[in-house]
Amino acid sequence: MDDITRQCARLSLHTKERQTIPLTSVFETNNRVLVAKLFTKRRVNVEALSCTLKSMWRFVQDFEVRDLASNTVLLLFTHEGDAQKVISQGPWSFDKYLFGLYQLSASESVDDAKFDTNSFWIQIHNLPLSRMTKVNATAIGSTIGRVEQVEASPSGECRGRYIRVRISINIEQPLCRGRYVELGGSDPHWISFQYECLPIFCYWCGRLNHDERDCKLWTDSGESLQKNDQQYGPWLRASVTAVQKPQLVHTKAS
Fold it and tell me: Which domains does the chain show, CATH number per domain?
């Protein structure tokens, strides 16, 4: 959209094109609207996708799905707050690929939607029990992305096998596998991260917006890289003992 605006700015406009059209005041917000992107190269049948979403999102009373082309759709919800419910219960995946969601501001158009971030529940492992506090979890999580929530008991307790933190991360950057922390000893201590409901991601570069076959590292090597050269793997996926939210199932391509 910015490119189109810059191109128009260089044009010589005739009289009618230079006229300004007054618009009515904005009373409608985008609270009931989401733009969604399917991170798969398979062409998706939007009608079948709509049926799948409505079957999956039973907690949402009603919504409409409109095709925006290029595996991008507009989700129009009937009731205020349903869009936020869908976002808060993510991440979602389609055909095991990431299903990105974006809520537009009042001044944005669908072309302004950005799909460079997504929220995940991340488990922080190998942290000494005495250091498993909400403050430390927030400090660690903020080095990965924007911390949205730290799972804790009503009393604020979060000690256990690991700490769960919901973080909005940049999916255009490699997944963070862990961090060194200082515990007061002579050597730093390594803590590891695991991601819940993690969709397909690239084992070569650790990014979520493509898989191994579409990675530049793989194609630039002439597809000669070996599996033992991979710096990422399925061990980044967290095991969750609680009942997990099912993923979006694959629908037939049109």
Answer: 30-110 (3.30.70.330), 117-236 (no CATH)
